Structure formats: structure tokens, C-alpha cells
Amino acid sequence: MPNPTRPAALLLAAALALTGCGADVTTRADGKEGTTEAGRHYPVTVENCGEKRTYAKAPQRVVTNDVGITEIMFALGLENHMAGYVMPDDKGDMTSVPWKDGYKKTKWLSKERINKELVLDADADLVFAGWNYGFNEGEGFTPAELKRVGVDSYLLSESCRNGQGKARGVMPPLDALYTDLRNLGKIFDVEDRAESLITSFRKEVADAQAKAPKGDDRPRVFLYDDGKDKPLTSGAYAGPHDIITKAGGDHIMKDLKDSWTTVGWETVVDRDPEVIVINNYGDTTADQKRAFLKSYKPLANVSAIKNDRIVVLDYVDLVESPRNPAAISSLAEDLRKFAR
């Protein structure tokens, strides 16, 4: 909470006293007074994707990539620390989210792919992105390359590589969200705000779980992202796993130790999902994805298709983002209708 109003003379005296001992008085993102004096808040060190990262001060010109990452910053009230964001214009409605003002205050830098030139043109001091959420060796856009040109980075925890080739995922999806909120809370000196968000998210999830199907009533659920020859879906380390599981579903791809990955249609048929969740984004609409699933002959005898049990959630609901808890609540309501 903000400090109570104090007489101007007292504030000035306090500022002079701090300045005299080598500290810089700042206004933190949560409205509190802070100081960048070594030995006070900064420097801070966090663990990010298995690496220790130290920040001498709060970054001031952050560039984010993609909608979920951008909204993590907005949920923490950090738009004043941003140079802008990069995302396509196919990621759903941005006008009704609790942090919609962040979009009004922050520059939309590009609807194309993020790259080094864009970051340098924005005079960024940090890029918040992830593997396959902007960072990509094939295009030469990596944390190592940014470091070479003097730009720091923070990796989305959902995208952490786990040491098995390029497979991603080192912790359960909601833990990844809470980890990033805590880390960014430390980096930007808004730890109270981060903990408040985590507490509210945990409560929202717990409330949804209390009403969700349980035991043998839990329907088998498959997440369909896209793809006709092979479906792109989610494993144990992408957002849909926790969203499905905590909403009362049995995630049929829970044994995949990866985040977003492809499988064969034979596997989907063998596991016979009773509900399919469509990831709504991109050039192929949710209605077009639904039509494909219902017309694809190998799926004709799958329970979800026979009983027309198809649910649609937006992309930002399903990737790591502050919308994940609300997605759990929404899906739990749908799954209660389908419970055995």
C-alpha cells in the first residue's frame, strides 16, 4: 500500500538524507518509495531456466514477445518499464481483460516476428521472451546473441529446455507462472504485488477445483492446437495440462514430457478423448478446426466427436499467462456438464 501522506519538508529531509549516504530515491512500480542503493533492494539475483541472473537495477525498456508474456508484465503493473511489445493481431480480444489499460499505454512495436534489429531500435535493456516464443537459434535470435550486443533477457519458464534435445518444460505449468511472477516481482521491486497475484490465482484455482469433476467422473480430454497430418498438442509442461487437470479433466497426453509438441492421430484415437479443447488463434478459425475434427474419418468413432463435446479456449488462455486461472474456472464449468 502507498505510504501515508507526510509533510513536504519531512519528505525532502528524508530524500536528502538518503542522497547523502549514496542512495537514489525512486518511485517503485507499486507506488512505494524505494532505493537502488547496493545492499538495499539491488542487486537482485533470480534463477531462470536453471541459470542465475543478476540485475543491478530494474530494467526500464523491456520488450516482450507474445500475448501471455506481455500480459504477465501488465498484470504486475510494469507497463512503465516497457519499451513495447511484439505480437500478431490474431491473439483474441484485448479490450476486456483486467489489464487492458496496459495495451493502451504501451507501444505495439510489431505484428511480425521479433528480431534483434527491432530490439535495438527500441533501445531495449531487456527482452522477455522464450524458446519458440520469440527465441530461435535458426533465426539467430537468442539470449546469447542479445547479450553480445548489450541487451539482457529473461526466459519464460514454460519454455525452459529440459536437457532432452530441444524438449521444453522443467516444472508444472502453474508453477512456471508463479515462478515468473515471483522472479519479476524481485527484478522490478514489486514483490508484494506478485505475491498478491499468486494468492488470488491460487484461490481462483482452488475454488474451481472444489466444483470440478473428480475420480471416475473426470472426462478424458485432448487439446487440439492445429495440424491435419499430425496434431500439435500439449504435453505435461504446457499450460493446458494444468488447465485440463485442475478443471477436472484427465489429460490424455500427460505422459509427454514436453510442452507443445506433435503426436500421431493413432495415439489420439487409441486414447479416445471424451472432450476436445480447441486452441483458438491463427489463420484457421476455431469453427474451421471444429469442422475438420468432425469430418476427419479416423476420428469418427472417438467419443468427443460422436457426442459433439468440443470446447474452445483462446490461445492466451492456454499458454503461460495471467489468464490461466480464469481458463481453469471456465473449463471446469464445461467439464461438469460432460462428467460421467
How is this structure best summarized?
The protein has 340 residues and is of the alpha/beta class. It is built from 13 helices and 16 strands.
Shape: globular
Q: What is the third-level CATH name, the topology of the largest domain?
A: Rossmann fold
The figure for the number of domains is 2
Describe the largest sheet: 6 strands, parallel
Radius of gyration: 22 Å
SSE-based structural type: alpha/beta
Counting DSSP E segments of at least 2 residues, the number of strands comes to 16
Strand fraction: 15-25%
Distance between the termini: 47 Å
What is the H level of CATH, i.e. the homologous superfamily of the largest domain?
Nitrogenase molybdenum iron protein domain
Order of secondary-structure elements: HEEEEEHEHEHEEHEHHEEHEEHEHHEHH
Number of helical stretches of at least 4 residues? 13
The CATH C-level name of the largest domain is Alpha Beta
Estimate the mean pLDDT confidence: 89
Helix content: 25-40%
Residue runs with pLDDT of under 50 for 5 or more positions: 1-28, 33-39
CATH architecture assignment name of the largest domain: 3-Layer(aba) Sandwich
